[in-house]
Write the structure tokens for this entry.
Amino acid sequence: MLEYAWIIPAIPVLSFVVILFFGKKMPKGGSEIGIFAVGTSFMLACITAVQWFQRVENASGKSGGAALSAFGKGLFARAGEGGVIVQPVVSTVRWFQMGGVTVSIGTRIDGLAVMMLFVVTLISLLVHIYSTAYLHDDVRFTYYYAALSLFTASMLTLVVASNTLQLLVGWELVGLCSFMLIGHWWEEQANTNAALKAFLTTRTGDVGLMIGVIITFFAANQSFDIGKVNASALAGLNGHTIWLVGASCLLIGIIGKSGQFPLHTWLPDAMAGPTPVSALIHAATMVVAGVYLGARVYGVFWQGFSIHSGGLNAMAIVGGITILIGAALAFVQDDIKKVLAYSTISQLGYMVMALGVGSWVGAVFHLFTHAFFKALLFLGAGSVAHSGSHHSFDMKKDMGGLRKYMPVTFITFMIGSIALAGIFPLAGFWSKDEILATAGQNGFELFTVVGLIGALMTAAYMTRCVYLTFFGEYRGHHHPKESPKAITIPLIVLAGFSVIAGFANASLFDIEKFKQYIEPTVAFPKNIFGVDFDIGLAALSVGIALTAIGIAAAFWIERKELKGLKGLTERSSVLKAGHTFLVNKYYLDYLYTDVIVGGIKGPIARASYWVNMNIIDGVINGVGKGATVIGRVVYRDIDQLVVDGAVNGIARETDQAGGLLRPLQSGRVQRYALMLFAAVGLIALALAIFG
Amino acid sequence: MILNQFLILAAILFCIGVYGVLARRNGVLVLMSVELMLNAVNINLIAFSAYLRSSAGDVFALFVITIAAAEVGVGLAIVLLIYRNLHSPDLDRVEQLKG
Amino acid sequence: MNWFDDWALTLAIFLPALGLGIVLMLPKAEEQLAKVVALGTSLVTLAVGIGILAEFDYGKAGRLQFNVDEPWIKVINAHYHLGLDGISLPMLILSMFITVLCIIYSWNHFPEPHNVKGFLALILLLEVGMNGTFLAEDLILFFIFFEIVLLPMFFMIGVWGGPNREYASIKFFLFTLFGSALMLLGFLALFFLQGSFQIPTLAALGDGNLAETTRLLIFGGLFLGFAIKVPMFPFHTWLPDAHTEAPTVGSVLLAAILLKLGTYGFIRIAIPILPHAARIWAPWIGLLAVIGIIYGAFCCLAQTDMKRLIAFSSVSHMGFVMLGIATLTSFGINAAIFGMVAHGLITGMLFFIGGSVQHTFGTREMGRLGGLLKQAPKMGWILGFCAMASLGLPGLAGFWGEFPAVLSAYQPSHGLSTDAFRTFMVIAAVGTVLAAGYLLWMYQRVAFGEPKPEFANAHIHDVTTVEWIAWTPILLMIVALGVYPDIIFSLTNDGATHIANLVKAVGG
């Protein structure tokens, strides 16, 4: 299967075509085809993964045995270390040839690709199932599934890509799918605006990617091949500068796609799309394409940003800033999906920062765990909207107290939140800790601190989010109930993964499956930092997260008592006290958002939100408007007036010159004859004089 | 042989012809004036031919006579058409080609 | 098949002329017959094209094949010299292909004042000129075919065009004629200095024996002739007017084929014959090309008329083609030819849709349109597809014209200013964002949202059968070329490399 991995993306391509042309005639509107196709891809991805593990085992000289048992054994026993080289499985066919360069298309299967194949197909499958219920009565059910299939195919193409050009193809295609799905309900202008914004913002980043791909192509002596690019980069071929420029350009691509500061503004807007799409595309898979790119051609960044030498570099800084501004913005949102969107931005910041501080394993591991719990949270939010709040995502207006009505959603959402907050022993703890520990041990202490502050904020805003959604009184005006099975089963599966995924690389127990199976051994920085588990740091980060939750929990208990009091007051007498309590309730709500991280968070978040909405967004909108204005000016004043004016001017002058000569053309034969004779006379005279 | 007399005669005839072409309004008269000019040229040609004892001038004169005949044929047809269309042989009224 | 080898190219050019003669002889009332004859002729011509595809020796794509070389005008040593290589083959097939589809599309769509016979005759005459230009290997022959296309296009715009048709058609005619005059001067200068009109002979001779100023001036003449046709900034102003006023089929042919005559001229004539001069001119051409990219995009953003927007997008897209050519590298020239084919298909298709939108809604004002996806979902999807193809989405044809062109600018031909071209590269890459901007903005205004009240209750036809027949082949080609670009690259690579080597050989 390792050689035939192209089948995995090919299946959803086929299903896209079939759904597009025959989906409407199917009894279930094409959804069954999509589910079947992605299911098959998932199975194949699992087989590929197992075969890869087997390959690593074989290379390590271990008695291979059944791959599954190897994997199982690996879960509990630490595998042998040592410099074993496991070649990635690259199988390509000629794509085209041009100017002496042959470009191939094909698959490059190694640990990283296998891990992504698993994540993408699994979450895509769950989202496919989930959507059957969530979008049951949608007007464009079939097209939705077609787009999902196309998305899965594109994402898988990106994942298995054997060269950067193919990666670019997949990259742009997932952007297209994102555009289609954000604008799924295109009747409303807001949605289409969001779709346009997403496409244009990411495409701005793509300029960087495109140029980065071109620069690395030339820097690697005219090759797109990922292995060759990495090897050339690490060898410092053609000098360091070219790799620095190349890495910077690629970083711009990452910033655009993975919602990094300052191009992150499209991601919250992208929540205009259907919720399962937000889970799949804008949380678990597409937005991590940037991180994936970073991990894929890590050699370029390693060389370009001189990561081995420690100190500040653009990648870590961008990631660090994104962590903080993303988390800060998550506090002031009333829309549950926007909270999650800003949280995604913040978490993507962790991954990018991890790459920047040399924690390759940390970045990829966090990508892995984040995919599960963030998809879970989004799908949970969708479940709430579907069955609890009547398609509203407003936590303050239409939610509250839902834990009583929706137990499954509540429990799974709690698991997701705790995993996100990084509480031992759920998934987020392990991956976040890996990043923070690496940063600290590589001399990037500043970024450890940033990460810890981020962890504090994460725990706090998630507590707020969970509180507003599931605790307190129900504030909506409908009849909340638990969601159907098609929705809850994916939630349960994801919750399961959110609990156990962290143990794939639980350094505390000496389980380092990621280091063993996922980290490449070919064309990769040889001295990539190995990290010891830092128990103190782990305790600190968990402590911080627990503190944040504790404060929130304290508020929750207090509020419960207040509510009891309030109820009493209302029942006994309608007096000023009750009124005050009522007012207090709102004050508490206000206070709630205010107190958790003290007085700092509110103003800062609001300020950064203001900056976000007014300055950065303003710049983006301004650029858009400016371009239109320039366009109008260029068109009206330069094109029509100057350039076209010159053209018309010449014509007009010719016309006028003609007008001057016009009287000569009297139409009378004798006039002409007179001129003729006069001319002859003049010539004769001239000849007589000068001849 | 005295060449001058022939040349002076030709010049006088030519000038009369030019005057007729430019000044007369009647198309037929203009045509006749053109004939006059052509014949003035003929006189010159033959005079020079005799003077230089070369037959080239005679040949040219014959050509001119032939062409003059053709020209009169076409010219008269045009004048007739003008008369038919404008009910007058007056050339001043033919100015549709005015720019 | 020796017979076919000798006559294929002549047939490709003059079969349409034969059909044109037959159409002209038919009585005016026999509209149906005229349509059948025109379609038949174009199909037979396409069949000849397919025969050429089958007989073409792909192993020697860089060489001229199907040569015909007969003395023609002895006094000036002009020959009836036709030939075909991997560079002209895609253009020839594109021209034949688009002509057939245009005739099919016209079937029920004849613009006012109807006159079926005249309209079809003009299309066939255009095909004569277009096919001839792509096959001519003699400068005089090239010039004649290059000029032949002016005439039918002039009448097509002037008679069947929109309200401002007279202005547009005269502007189109005079503008291009002006360029051609200077181009002819260049040809004559070449003849008097080099003693031949044969393109292969001249290319073999090169311009090494000419004085510096002379070759620069000759190149300048050719440049003007071709650049106006492309059209490059700042010679582009005839294009939006011509496109806006032209009938749909006219716009399609204009965008799909006619513009390519200019770029083809650069690749076939200007650069191989005058490599020294090309090296001096290249940075300036590159500069004009990127100005065109950005400038065209800005102008697109200011448009309210759908067709005018697409017209300006041509200026922008042809900028990428010219940028590729200006690098004088194999990458760049390959990209340029791919860009020509891709732009021909995609923009041609966009104009088809623009025409159909006008046909159904009676307006192309984007402010009045909206909700196309709701009223005519299939047309909306096709429009979206084409917009995506046009903005250079990988997997569709447009990308392979754009990306390699940008790529080639990183490393222009040896000796050209790398700094200048790398700057061009970045600017061109920014142009792709603007392209996405104006195309999606157009799509949002036309296709998304609810239909405007004005048309809310109108009975709107979705894509008709005739349109499907005319459009499906183009759509399939866009996908096929996008997925497997080697279809074109394998043909053009040898020729492009050859030209790049010619230039490299004279470089310092």
Notes: The interface with chain A takes residues 18, 21-22, 30, 91-92, 94-99 of chain B (CB under 8 Å).
